[in-house]
Design goal:
CATH class of the largest domain in chain B: Mainly Alpha
Shape of chain B: elongated
CATH superfamily of chain A: Fumarate reductase/succinate dehydrogenase, transmembrane subunit
CATH topology of chain A: 3 helical TM bundles of succinate and fumarate reductases
Order of helices and strands of chain B: EEHEEEEEHHHHHHHH
Radius of gyration of chain B: 20 Å
Structural class of chain A: mainly alpha
Strand content of chain B: 5-15%
Order of helices and strands of chain A: HHHHHHHHH
Bound molecules: protoporphyrin IX containing FE, FE2/S2 (inorganic) cluster
CATH superfamily of the largest domain in chain B: Alpha-helical ferredoxin
Number of helices of chain A: 9
Oligomer: heterodimer
Radius of gyration of chain A: 21 Å
CATH topology of the largest domain in chain B: Fumarate Reductase Iron-sulfur Protein, Chain B, domain 2
């Protein structure tokens, strides 16, 4: 439903639809879903770092998640919805941006821009490919159905063994590490950007948010990559 | 100074344009960029060729007519400077300088370096005003305004609507322009009254004109001759969200 620029009092339905139809509204969707995914990424990493605490800790953690299906499925469905919203909004915004400049400049000077902010769509799309592979790999067991049948001494799913065997394949590990590099790039712009989209950043606080983005993106990269690297180096076995 | 110019020549919006090389000889370093183009045009007239069309009016940095992309940067290499205030001493003898128009779908080329910026006027018409009956000028201090708000409003009101923000943005977004207008009016008591309707309508118009979406990079802020900051965009993001909430809940 179109809200004419001239109409003085847009209808309630018209206003509601602006959340998705307007540039600013879609950026709110982008920012909120991006922030949600970022929080998930941190939680997911902290969970997996328990692999360093021994077989019992990580397998108990996995067992706990699976033994509360209501919570597990709520989180899964919420994540699925926000990832879909993030991707559709991201692609639509990027296409609109491309349409807005049909004729390129001859030698455009890059002003105040970084590699990260210019590559958000491509880093995002490769992260999407990674997410699909990652789920097929460890959650759905498409890559190696054996993975889901490993059992530890207490009869639980042996997640630790699955990770160690999975990452012993150097090709798999390299793909994970490269994807984490792209996530590093994506988050180093995204985590500061989303506060600006929500109107929460200012000249006074931009330094803080830019640092927060870079530091947290780097920690996510190091934390996640340490696992395949430790396995390839034989530290975790 | 002797310079080589690579100037974008385009007959009209429907004809593809191209770069054409010109010599600019005996240029004084004290000339402005526009005066240098005047010299080149005089030469073209003498030779019976078509002059380079470019936009200008005040030539003192206040009207916002004179935008050119010079060596890939809107308004040239200096910060806080319009093209008309850019002097040739910024360049070196023997330099080659590329000159292009603002490039954005909502700013179609009229001719050469002149683009149609009526999209900005239509955005202003959609809400960039306050509705009051005019009469005698009111007493300047009749409505007390906190100094902080007045300063922020005045900073935003510096915007001359030149369009450099759109030209510099990788997404051809007009957010800095619209945010400056929204901020300038909504920070003041006279403009607060219509703040929700204003921000909703101006953003709707901005989208309908086909400008891109802000990705929070700050190229606009860096090239803005009036140094309008991203704070204004953050404020517009807040005001728009507030207007959406009020509209949905009311
Ligand atoms: C783990 C997965 C992901 C996380 C944690 C994440 C995080 C973020 C964050 C925090 C933002 C900033 C939002 C804003 O600018 O206001 C963002 C922006 C963006 N994301 Fe993602 N994202 C992820 C996956 C993806 C995927 C799969 C795509 C694929 C299309 C994608 C494409 C984009 C785009 C195009 C932007 C907008 C860039 C901009 O406005 O500068 N992201 N992301
Ligand atoms: S000609 Fe008026 S601002 Fe440059």
């Amino acid at each position: 439903m179109a809200v004419s620029a001239q109409s003085l009092q847009p209808s309630r339905a018209g206003i509601l639809s602006l959340i998705w139809r307007s540039s600013l509204g879609k950026k709110y969707v982008m920012a909120i879903t991006g922030l949600g995914l970022f929080i998930f990424v941190i939680a997911h990493m902290l969970g997996n770092l328990q692999i360093y605490l021994g077989t019992d800790k990580i397998n108990t953690y996995a067992e706990t998640l699976k033994s509360t299906p209501a919570l597990l499925w709520t989180v899964r469905i919420v994540l699925l919805v926000i990832v879909i919203l993030h991707i559709i909004a991201g692609i639509q915004l990027a296409l609109a941006n491309r349409r807005a400049r049909p004729q390129a400049y001859s030698n455009k000077k890059v002003v105040a821009s970084t590699l990260a902010d210019r590559t958000m769509l491509i880093s995002g799309l490769i992260i999407l490919a990674f997410i699909v592979f990652h789920l097929s790999h460890f959650t759905l067991g498409f890559v190696n159905p054996q993975y889901l049948h490993y059992v530890d001494s207490m009869g639980r799913h042996d997640v630790r063994r699955m990770m160690i065997i999975g990452f012993s394949n150097p090709f798999v590990s390299v793909f994970y590490i490269v994807s984490m590099g792209l996530l590093l790039l994506h988050l180093s712009h995204g985590v500061s950007s989303c506060f600006q989209s929500l109107g929460l950043r200012s000249t006074r606080t931009i330094g803080f948010f830019d640092k927060l983005a870079k530091v947290s993106a780097l920690l996510v990269f190091l934390g996640n990559c340490s696992i395949p690297l430790a396995i390839l180096a034989g530290i975790l076995k | 100074m002797n310079l080589t110019l690579r100037v974008w020549r385009q007959k009209n919006a429907d004809t593809p344009g191209k770069f054409v090389e010109y010599r600019a000889n005996n240029i004084s370093p004290d000339m402005s960029f526009l005066e240098m183009l005047d010299v080149v045009n005089e030469e073209l007239i003498k030779r019976g060729e078509e002059q380079i069309a470019f936009d200008h009016d005040c030539r003192e940095g206040i009207c916002g007519s004179c935008g050119l992309v010079i060596n890939g940067r809107a308004h040239g290499p200096l910060a806080a400077t319009t093209t008309c205030q850019l002097h040739m001493r910024t360049f070196k003898d023997g330099d080659t300088i590329a000159v292009e128009p603002w490039r954005a779908r909502p700013f179609p080329v009229i001719k050469d370096l002149v683009v149609d910026r009526n999209a900005f006027d239509r955005i202003i018409q959609s809400g960039g005003y306050i509705s009051v009956s005019t009469g005698g000028a009111p007493d300047g201090n009749a409505i007390p305004i906190p100094k902080d708000d007045a300063d922020k409003a005045m900073d935003a009101a510096q915007c001359i609507g030149c369009g450099a923000c759109v030209a510099a943005c990788k997404n051809a977004s007009a957010m800095l322009f619209v945010a400056a207008k929204v901020s300038h009016l909504s920070l003041l008591p006279q403009g607060k009254i219509e703040q929700d309707r204003r921000v909703l309508n101006m953003v709707t118009r901005m989208d309908e004109e086909g400008f891109g979406n802000c990705t929070n990079i700050g190229s606009c802020e860096a090239v803005c001759p009036k140094q309008i900051t991203l704070d204004n965009i953050a404020r517009m993001n807040r005001l728009y969200m507030e207007a959406l909430f009020k509209g949905i809940l009311s």
